[in-house]
Backbone:
C-alpha cells in the first residue's frame, strides 16, 4: 500500500514572536520542515509527500525540496482558512488507494518507529491516532469554576493522524463544522470509529521559543 | 503572612531507570532538590520549608540543607503511603497562620515569578492552583473507544498548589479517599472552591530521563 505523508505547514508563527513561520526556522542549520521530511524518508524511502504551505511560502518550500533532491516525491499546495480546509486541499492530490499520514510540520522530532507503528495499525484497523497520557493532574474549566478530571482517562493527541485513504477521503467531502479540530473528528463525523495508538513524548509540537531550544538539544543528544 | 513551602520529595524514580530518587539526581552539579529550594528562596528569603522525603533519604536531605546553610529554615519529615499521607505528615508541622505552597520537588524549574503570583492570589482568594492549557488536541478514553474533548476547557495542573493554612489544614483532617489525587481535590472535598492561576510551561515535572536533559539545558539557557 502506498504511503503518503500530508504535511501541514500552515501556521503563521505568532507565538514564536518571529515573522518566519515556525516550519522554516532553522534547527541545527536545517529548516524544521527538513527534519520532518527526513524522518518520514528514514521510516520508508518510498514515502511521497503532499506539502500544504501558506501561499506566500510556496517558493521557500519549492527551494527546500529542490535542495533535498526530492522534488519528484513532493506535491506542494497552498493552505486554506482552517486546518480542515488545508488538509482538504492536500487530499485532493491523493489519487490512489494509500495510507495517508496527516502530520504537523512543526512536530519535527517525529521518529521513524512511530511512523511505522502508525502504518501497521492503520493497515489493520483503518486508523492510528498517536496519543500520550498526561503527566500532570487535569482540571476542567467551567463557567462558574473548575473541577478535577481523572487524568488516566485523558489522552493528549499528536500527529501523524494516519488513515486508510478510503476512510479519510470521503470524510473530507463533508460540509465543514466548527467541531472539526483535527482529522480524527472529521473521520468520526462520518460515523467511523478512530483508533488511538501510543505516541512518543519526544514528538513535541514547536509552538514557543523554548520548544525550538529543546528540540535543538534533543537533536544534538540523538546525534 | 508567613510563607511555608511544603516540598514533597516522595517519588521512587522508577520511570527514570535509576536507584536514586529523582529529587537527588544532579543538574548542573546540584541535586534537583537544591534547585527547587533555591527558587523559593529567590522568591522570598523568608520562606521556611517542610521537606517530606522517603524515610531512607532523611540523611541525604539533612546533609543537603546543612550544605546550603538553611537547616534553621527547614523541617524534615518522612513521607506516607500516598501523596495525601505525605502532605498530611508535612502539614502537622504548620503551627501558625500562613500561606502553604505544596510543591513537587521534581518541578525544579519553578521560577520566583510564579511563586509570587501564587502568593498574591492565595492571600486574596484563599487558593492558587497553577495550570496551563494543552497545546495538543485532547481525547477521552472510554471502555468502548474514545471521543474528542474541547481542549480549551482543559487545564494541566502544576504545583505549587497554594492555600491559606486555614483552608488546607482542616481539609487534611478528612478521612482519606481515592479521589484525593492532589491538594486541590482534598480542599474541594470540604466544600471549598479552589481557584486556578496561569502556570508556566517551563515549570515541568521531571519524570523521564529526557526531562533531566531538557531541564539541564533550560538552566544553562537561563544562566
Residues:
Amino acid at each position: 500500500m502506498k504511503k503518503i505523508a500530508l504535511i501541514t505547514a500552515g501556521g503563521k508563527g505568532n507565538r514564536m514572536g518571529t515573522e518566519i513561520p515556525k516550519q522554516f526556522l532553522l534547527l541545527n542549520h536545517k529548516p524544521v520542515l527538513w527534519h520532518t521530511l527526513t524522518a518520514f524518508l528514514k521510516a520508508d524511502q518510498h514515502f511521497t509527500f503532499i506539502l500544504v504551505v501558506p501561499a506566500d511560502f510556496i517558493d521557500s518550500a519549492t527551494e527546500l525540496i529542490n535542495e533535498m533532491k526530492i522534488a519528484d516525491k513532493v506535491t506542494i499546495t497552498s493552505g486554506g482558512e482552517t486546518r480542515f480546509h488545508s488538509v482538504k486541499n492536500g487530499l485532493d492530490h491523493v489519487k490512489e488507494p494509500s495510507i495517508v499520514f496527516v502530520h504537523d510540520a512543526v512536530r519535527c522530532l517525529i521518529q521513524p518507529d512511530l511512523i511505522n507503528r502508525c502504518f501497521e495499525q492503520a493497515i489493520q484497523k483503518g486508523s492510528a491516532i498517536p496519543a500520550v497520557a498526561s503527566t500532570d493532574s487535569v482540571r476542567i474549566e467551567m463557567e462558574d469554576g473548575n473541577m478535577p478530571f481523572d487524568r488516566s482517562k485523558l489522552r493528549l493527541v499528536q500527529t501523524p493522524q494516519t488513515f486508510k485513504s478510503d476512510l479519510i477521503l470521503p470524510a473530507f467531502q463533508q460540509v465543514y463544522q466548527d467541531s472539526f479540530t483535527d482529522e480524527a473528528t472529521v473521520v468520526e463525523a462520518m460515523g467511523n470509529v478512530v483508533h488511538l495508538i501510543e505516541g512518543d513524548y519526544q514528538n513535541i509540537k514547536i509552538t514557543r521559543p523554548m520548544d525550538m531550544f529543546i528540540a535543538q538539544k534533543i537533536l544534538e543528544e540523538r546525534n
